[in-house]
Amino acid sequence: MAEVAYVLSRMMMPDDANGLGNVHGGEVLKLMEEAGHIVATRHCNAGNYNNSCSPRVAVLARVEQMDFLKPMFISEVAHVTAEITYVSQQSIEVKINVYAENILKNDQRFTNRGILWYVAVKAVASTEYAVSTVPPLTYKDPQDEEDGRKRFEFQKRDRQASKELYKLYESGQPLVNDWNGSGIVADSTEKYTVKRSQSTLIHSILPSDCYSSKFSTGGSVMKLMDTAGALSAIRHSKTPCVTASIDAINFHHPMRQSNVITISGRVTFTSAKSMEVEVIVITEDLSTGKKHFSCSAFFNFVSVDSSGRVLPVPPLVLKTDSEKKRFESGKQRYSARKQRRLSRETTKN
Amino acid sequence: MAEVAYVLSRMMMPDDANGLGNVHGGEVLKLMEEAGHIVATRHCNAGNYNNSCSPRVAVLARVEQMDFLKPMFISEVAHVTAEITYVSQQSIEVKINVYAENILKNDQRFTNRGILWYVAVKAVASTEYAVSTVPPLTYKDPQDEEDGRKRFEFQKRDRQASKELYKLYESGQPLVNDWNGSGIVADSTEKYTVKRSQSTLIHSILPSDCYSSKFSTGGSVMKLMDTAGALSAIRHSKTPCVTASIDAINFHHPMRQSNVITISGRVTFTSAKSMEVEVIVITEDLSTGKKHFSCSAFFNFVSVDSSGRVLPVPPLVLKTDSEKKRFESGKQRYSARKQRRLSRETTKN
Amino acid sequence: MAEVAYVLSRMMMPDDANGLGNVHGGEVLKLMEEAGHIVATRHCNAGNYNNSCSPRVAVLARVEQMDFLKPMFISEVAHVTAEITYVSQQSIEVKINVYAENILKNDQRFTNRGILWYVAVKAVASTEYAVSTVPPLTYKDPQDEEDGRKRFEFQKRDRQASKELYKLYESGQPLVNDWNGSGIVADSTEKYTVKRSQSTLIHSILPSDCYSSKFSTGGSVMKLMDTAGALSAIRHSKTPCVTASIDAINFHHPMRQSNVITISGRVTFTSAKSMEVEVIVITEDLSTGKKHFSCSAFFNFVSVDSSGRVLPVPPLVLKTDSEKKRFESGKQRYSARKQRRLSRETTKN
């Protein structure tokens, strides 16, 4: 395995801020994805693999569950490391760490870690791409390869399971009957209901959202997902909200320049101090009119006051059977997340 | 007619601000144009019209007179609806509404409405585009089509009339003798004169200003026009200024990636509480050196103090005959605008 | 010589700010380079030179030493003039002036001047470019041509001399043994050492950093160089810092869309009131894995308090022989700069 080195380092500027004046969680996701894209693309073309004259590019396929450990502030320098930890025939696993540095105080903090999976594609015509094989990885220890294979199998199963919504949508069924897609709920007497929390962002993918392959950067989509999620959380709590963690995201349909994407969020579960928001992304190709399900994910938010102190969250008011069912699933995910955090802390000690 | 739904929804971020800290009027224009571009391009390619293998893109041809009804603030969510209301053989009329939502207060306001006309173009070579026909629209009521045709004929006449400046410029005549094109007037004793108010912005069109067709987004040009207009208004009033309304804009020559555009403004008329600024746009192709007249428009501004209260405007000092003539035309446009506003209010009651 | 006119005019917006809230020095460099690119590209294609069907584009080759005379503030309008002053067979010298205008106060200041050299390239295949000849310039006075030729010869020699680092790197030698490339120094007891001041930014070149030729704009690279330099200066002084001047920059290897560039800085010399930072740029092509030395330069900074008053600078602690050697060279450059400034002031009187 190659030595871990900084892959990206960038100063956080005023337009990277969220409403509280700190660095937008979505900007951190963009940095992580860009770093992953760089090391994965680098690996795909190492030693001019296979003498291919058409270079490969890495496209984001999946993000593993991730916690936002600490906030980052404007005018700090973000440093990102990225290390390839496993390679299958067509996919690449990248482990990413983010550090924030206050250059005035010579102070640095570990703020984020994440696991991202990429697939390699290569151009087969002027605008067509096909999935390509990936050069093998040399492991320091056979055990590393064995552990990697287990993570690969796990994500493959989880990815398959996550295709449920994708298949529903592609088969022409309405994704969710009671999801109106509108950002404004006319009836303001609706308080703390799921309907009240619904948010939609709609964005047309511009050249500045894309790599030169004209695929949207995974990061710019995740930033929009984070923003849509935060809108739902803020609508529910009526306070500023910060991203605490993200459940795994699987990308099922590519998003490309000129596509219009619709990002919708709704609160699915609340605990005493957190809100879970389901976010889904639908992609439309304007030149054919066809729409596809691109991805969905659960984002977890905490409500804070203006100085960043955590506030209690009003309980979600459940009206329909499907809302109650989703709340129960949310409760299970909440317990699983808690379990995972505890076991990680135990491992460290 | 298709059901009206949100076409764009976007959170207003710190870099969308103007000098007062509110959302820049030009950003609102960009949102409206992007929404119009999406629904018009969608319509052009509906059902893979005409089995054309080359998809069509909608390019902004004209904006009807529009009022800025209410300001929008940073961290609000802008929601934009767009509805196709008439289609001729080659043009598409889109009606656009903008709403601002304060998600903390569950408060929403109607802030802008506008009518935009698009033409469809399709690629005929790698960088050449030709105007294309447009699929027909199905109307709910024959009267809707008849009303649309009247609006179409009206805009056609008005568009023709607006070609005067275009023809003057293309025939090689200097557009305006006394327009020095400079933003800095050396003689600071010039107070409240037309010359003193002259402003010029010069911008080279970058990939991030363009759709993937490499045509500039109409919105980024209108944002620059709004900025140049505001500079002239501020030069005259010496106070912050906000855009109150825009007269119809006709686009006569396309603006494309790598072109350099020169946007010039000058105050043409002042009433007790408003300033009219004429803004023109000249486009230069660096690879051939050729220059063309792209468009012109009248922007209307009010002078405000730092808390947004309307202030009286110093009267414009007129020095030359052509300045006096333009002031008289401005007075007529001012009355026409007032009339239009009154009749609209009467219609509503 | 053509008449000098404004080539760019742009309002400074909130996202143009540095940490002090003034306009980022790097944004000024971007404006200057864009203006130079425009007049040089315009000249290359004048009269459809040589009947070439493939238009030429101007690529930044060198920046002469430049002083930042005065700061610029957000909401001021920047006006940039650019004049071609000499043309050799393949290069173009452009003289650039920058003015800041406060439109509320009718106040304008001369803030920057610079000399930029461009070479013309033209496409020879879909992504390949070759250096092209340039149409001749007509001089008002034969003396102007003669003076230009002297500047051309001087820059050619200086450019050649600056190739030392380039050749070292391209021959596979580590550029500098003691440059660890990391932005975070774990050992916080290191104070005022060269090692403590080391900074690295890593950036992947996106479409919005490029001209349509897909070459990076020289300005976006210089802005990153200025930022990396400022980081080193701030790490050393623990105060805000502003750019005072830049020594000549020679560009030896082009930077293109999708390349990853690593920009590293370290303090090389300190006087009582200034810091000299050496900045180098390494370019990596992800599709081949090849790395090249693109450019290096010395940036000079002063330490200021939050109201912009100049502060004394802590002396640099020198630990290795090569650090001492570089400090001595820095001292010589410092004296040369002082001499140059004095002689310029004498010339003016």
From TrEMBL, chains A, B, C:
List the record's Gene Ontology CC terms alphabetically: cytoplasm; cytosol
Report domain HotDog ACOT-type positions. Answer: 2-124, 195-307
User: Which Pfam family, giving just one, matches this sequence?
Assistant: 4HBT
UniProt-annotated location(s): Cytoplasm
**Organism superkingdom:** Eukaryota
> Single GO molecular-function term?
long-chain fatty acyl-CoA hydrolase activity
Q: Which Gene3D superfamilies does the record associate with it?
A: Hotdog Thioesterase
- Which GO terms fall under biological process for this protein? acyl-CoA metabolic process; fatty acid catabolic process
> Which keywords has UniProt assigned to this entry?
Cytoplasm, Hydrolase, Lipid metabolism, Repeat
Q: Which residues form the active site?
A: 18, 226
Keyword Repeat present in the record's keywords: the answer is yes
Where are the residues of the annotated region Disordered? 328-349
The name on file for this protein is: HotDog ACOT-type domain-containing protein
Which organism does this record belong to? Trichoplax adhaerens
